[in-house]
Amino acid sequence: MAVLNEEQEMLRDMAREWATNESPVAAFRKVRASGDPEAFDRDAYGAMAQMGWSGIIVPEEHGGSDFGWLSAGLVVEELGKTLTASPLVATTLAAAAIVLGGSDEQKAKWLPRLASGETIGTLAIDEGPRHDPAKLSASVAGGKLSGTKAFVHEAHGADLFVVAAANGLYLVEKGDGVSLATRKLTDQRSHAQVTFDAAPADRLDSGGDSLLDDVLDRARILTACEMLGMAQAVFDMTLDYLKQRVQFNQVLATFQALQHRMADLFGNLAMMRSAVEGGLQALDSGFGIARAATIAKAEANRVLHTMSREGIQLHGGIGMTDEYDVGFYLKRARVLETSWGGTAYLRDHFAGTSGY
Amino acid sequence: MATQPDVKAPGADDAFREEVRQFLADNFPPELKGKGNALAGVDGPTQESDAQRKWREAMGERGWGTPTWPREYGGGGLTRRQARILDEEMARAGAYNPIGGMGVMMFGPTLLEYGSEAQKKEHIPPICRGEIRWCQGYSEPNAGSDLANLQTTAEDKGDHYLVNGQKTWTSGGQWADKCFCLVRTDKSDKHRGISFLLIDMDAPGVEVRPIQMISGMSPFCETFFTDVKVPKENLVGEEGQGWTIGKRLLQHERTNLSGGGSLARMMGASLSDLAKKYLETDESGAIADKVLRDRIADFEIRWSAFLLTARRAAEESKAAGGVSEISSVLKKLGTKLGQERAELMIEIMGFQGLGWEGEGFSEAELAGVRAWLFGKATTIYGGSTEIQNNIIAKRVLGMLDHQ
Fold first, then answer.
1. Domain annotation covers residue A251
2. Chain-wide mean pLDDT for chain B?
3. What is the DSSP letter of B103?
4. What does the pLDDT look like over A252-292, one tens digit per residue?
5. For a disulfide at A187, which of A335, A354, B42, B337, Cβ 3.0-4.6 Å?
6. Rg, chain A, Cα only
7. Whether B239 contacts B185, CB under 8 Å
């Protein structure tokens, strides 16, 4: 993995310890069983905010720690490993949109609240079942936004929506003119169709024409971090399983056919990690972000897709049971793959932005 | 062995970048712009032009061809960060690193770790200056994937060893000055009976015969040793330590054979540029064949991820003071992707990409065909893909030996 400084190592270790002890997959099972449409544990998110995780990319003057994207990615990866249900990614992305495009006033108003965990934010962009930021019909007239966003992550808990309209990004608070219809997806997290009907909207004016693209780059990279954690977890649990499961009087790990498949998965995982960390490093250095973001998400899609399928296959029948954890990763994997660009979209995007 | 971490010092970086730019402006001959390093491969002997020689000497003098090697042995003594700046600036100027070959890729780093002070002082500086060519004496007719089965013997004769046996697949053996060799000093122990020995290729009793390959090229040789006298001071490490040293060298080899050794290669000609030259484009400039366009994008994304992996491995190994645990992964992935790239190129070029000789084909097209064929060796040599899979499964993932 990337060479970390001392501060980043501490942060990573803290996140790993917390996720392992306080938020194992069993915690997600509880959230799922509760049936609460918000689908996350408010106390757990409070603890995460207390540790400063919701403010990692927020500048210090606005109540954050400004530790940078690599640091944010390390935390998200650790939470991805245990499938921690939280609005951390969604809130971080909303904060990023405001950092990039907000006025001083908007920053002063929202960033401290997002950083402290008091306010939960999310992005509301796509209007259909497939990612397509070029086709947006949400519109604004007289400071009121109208339109329907088809699948919004963490919508039930969100206090603040960063909404993409045809002519820019807007901040919309939950309340007047905002209504939710739950769209339960296979990952059992919070997703909703959100309808804005003349909802009061505050435009993010400072980000220039590329603001939506810039926010999407960050969404792709941070989502890829969660996927990296998931892929690592599936790999680790599969390897552990092969090392203890006995068939034909032999431990499965001793079969060369399985060893070579694990070596293939390990190689793929290495590529995914490099692509994802490359995206984070691009964000921190401000260089080549758009290309790095496409590579990060495309590799995350490709590798997690394979990993989640192989994870089930290599476990055999036990992998098919709800009692065992590996299936949860498969279901969350497809939701994240579809978010901010499926593989076909990303390849087309890559070719287009590369000039062919 | 801990190394100094690269400290973030933007001011110092800028100053170094300025120094590199000045050096390139003063020393890099403009007529070499865009050319590659003829010494890096094993394709054949190189007739150096005056410009090439001057450029090599200028870089060798600074030690910048081996930028992170210690200054005291002729290396550049640069931090990883500075080396990256050097790479970036060379790419920007269209310059290349004129120092290379097996001495740089494999033998040098290994000798720096295991060699005696006298050996380092003798062998490292000429490598840094690009004055000498090394070849590798590892494989034998019955010791390929099962390398430890090697039978070439080195018999202790007091002040020297007497070497007898046959090596094969000696890359560039016909042009090499010296050979780093694994030899058997003890027949009773498969692994601990192996030693690491340096042999002069012009010593009496050394005979080299090139082998013609399916590509039509002969970069590999058979090498025969008949009563070759090798002085005792040419033993690297202890007698019987050869397997350990040899394996470490192979890790360096894998990292380099993977094809992603240098960041500068990211700037090289892309598959998409080639595709735009050979394929029809629509009015917006996009490749009209959408299926091929999709496959090219798929490949380029994965190739980029691979180059990032090579960069990550270099950073990790620098930070850890050793070779990254993903060196086997790099070899496995890079060689496969390289082959995939060659196949995709042929598909893009159609019959034009299958010329063997004669008229109607450009030099680049003919070279491309040979490279495609020769590239099939990459997943076989340096430890085949199957061997890399075994190494990853057993050493990295801790899966047990299969029965």
1. yes
2. 88
3. I
4. 999 999 999 999 999 999 999 999 999 999 999 999 999 99
5. A335
6. 20
7. yes
Q: CA end-to-end span of chain A, whole Å? A: 32
Judged against a pLDDT cut of 50, whether residue B268 lies above it is answered with: no
User: What torsion do the CA atoms of A294, A297, A300, A305 make, to the nearest 10 degrees?
Assistant: -110
**Catalytically annotated residue among B89, B140, B239, B253:** B253
DSSP B280-302: -B-TTS-BS-HHHHHHHHHHHHH
The answer on A91 and A131 residing in a single domain is no
- Inter-axis angle of helices B50-62 and B10-27, nearest 10: 150
Closest CA to A326 of A311, A338, A340: A311
Helices and strands in chain B: count of H runs, count of E runs: 12, 8
Residue after which a domain boundary falls, among A162, A184, A203: A203
Q: What is the domain extent for residue A92?
A: 6-116
Chain A residue with the nearest C-alpha to that of B386:
A260
Provide the chain A residues 260-299 that lie in CB contact (below 8 A) with chain B. Answer: 260, 262-264, 266-267, 270-275, 277-278, 291, 294-295, 298-299
pTM of the model: 0.85
- Say whether residue A346 is in contact with chain B using an 8 A CB cutoff: yes
Q: Is residue A1 part of a domain?
A: no
CA distance A272 to A12: 18
Q: Is A4 on the interface with B (CB under 8 A)?
A: no
| CA–CA dist B345, B352 (Å, integer) | 10
What's the pLDDT tens digit per position in B319-367?
Answer: 887 777 788 899 999 999 999 999 999 999 999 999 999 899 998 899 8
Q: What is the mean pLDDT of residues B152-179?
A: 95
> Which residue in B276, B301, B398 is closest to A299 by CB distance?
B301
Lowest-confidence region among B89-103, B129-143, B308-322:
B308-322
How many distinct structural domains can be found in chain A? 3
Average pLDDT over residues A336-342: 98
Given A100, A116, A132, which residue is the final one in a domain? Answer: A116
Element at B113 (helix H, strand E): helix B108-114
